[in-house]
Amino acid sequence: MRRGSPLAALLAVAGAFLPGPAASSAPAPVEEPVSLRLQFRRGDALVWKVVSRERQAQSSPLAGGDAAAEHRFEWTFEQRVADVDASGRATSRCAIGRVWLELEMGGSRVVYDSRDEPGEKSPDEGLPGFAEAVAVFRALPGKSFTLVQAPDATLVSVKGFGDIVEGALARPGGGDAGPEAPILRALVQQQLGDEAMRDELQRGAGHLPKGAVRPGDSWTGTLREPLSLAPASLRVETTYTLAGPVRDGEATVSARASVSLVERKAEPGDGPLGDTSPLAALLARLKPSLRKSEHSGTFVYDAAGGALKSSRVVRVREVELEMGAPGAPEADSGAEGLLAKLSTRSETETTLVSRSRAAQGF
Fold this sequence. Notes:
The protein is built from 6 helices and 12 strands. By secondary structure, the chain is α+β, with helices and mostly antiparallel strands. The protein has one domain: Roll (Lipovitellin-phosvitin complex, beta-sheet shell regions), CATH 2.30.230. Strands 1, 2, 3, 4, 5, 6, 7, 8, 9, 10, 11 and 12 form a 12-stranded antiparallel beta sheet that branches. The longest helix is centred in the middle third of the chain and has 12 residues, at 194-205. The protein is globular.
C-alpha cells in the first residue's frame, strides 16, 4: 500500500472508531482510603526466618594488637495464635525451629546446626569465647516463648526468650562463672532479653497506621536498639508508605528508616553492670559513633482479610566504639588516650517465610 494513499487514510479513520482489544477482567485498583488492621484468628500460623551476619575488628594501640571476629547466625520460629481477646489482641506461642551458627575468631572456627546429631561438636567449640556462644544457641531449638500483638501490629510483649538464654548460661560450661560472667549476663539482657527481642521482631512485623490511608500516605513507627554495653542506644524511626492502590485485595507498604545515636552520661551504678563490678568504670568510657545505617522493607497485607501476607526487612549497621584509657581525658581520642577501638558491621534480614490462615470462626 502506497504511503499517503486514500485507502491508508480511510483505514486510519476507521481505526479510531473500531473497538480495541478486550478489556482485562482483573478488578480495577481500589483508590479509596483503606484501613489496615490485623484480624487475628485462633490457629493462624506464621513462619519467620532471621538471618544475621556480623563482622568485628578490634584494635588496641596501647597493647599493639589487632583482632577480628565474624559470625553468621540463622534461626526460624513459628508464631501460632493461641488466643484472641475482646480488643483483638492475639497471644501467640512461638516455637523455635532450626538454629544455625558459624563463628570465626582468632583463626578458629565453630559451626553449629541444630539438624546435626545431638552429640556432634566442632573441635574448637570448647575454646574460651566459643563455649558461651554455642551454649546459648544450643539451648534455643525446640524451646518456645510467648508474643502478644495488637491489631495495629504493635508487639505488646515478648516473654520467655530471655529465660531460655539465661538458663543456657547458668548450666555448667555455659559461661555463668569466671570474670567474664558479668559481661555475658549484661549482654544477654541487652541483646537477647525479652525487651530487646520484642524490638528485634517488631521490625519484621512493621507498624500499621492509626486511621485510613490513601496511596502515597505515610506514617511512622519508632524503635530503640541497645549498643552493646555502651551508655547509648540507637533511635530508629521508620517511615511507612502505602505504595499504591489496593490491587486484588492486596495493599503493599514500603518502609525506610532514619537512625540516630542517643547518648547519655553514665552515672555511678548506672548500666547493666552496676557499680559493684570493676569493669563498670571502664565500660562507662565507651564512646560510640554511628558510621553507617540502612534500613528498608516491604510488607504486603490482605486488606480485607486483615492479615500479613509477606514481609521482608533488611538492616545494615556500622558502629564504632572507642574506649579511653584509665586516666586519659575523655576528650582525648588520639592513640595515646585510646585503650581499644571496636568496629562492627552487622547485616540482618527478617522474612516471613510462610503463613496459614485459620478457618473463620475457628
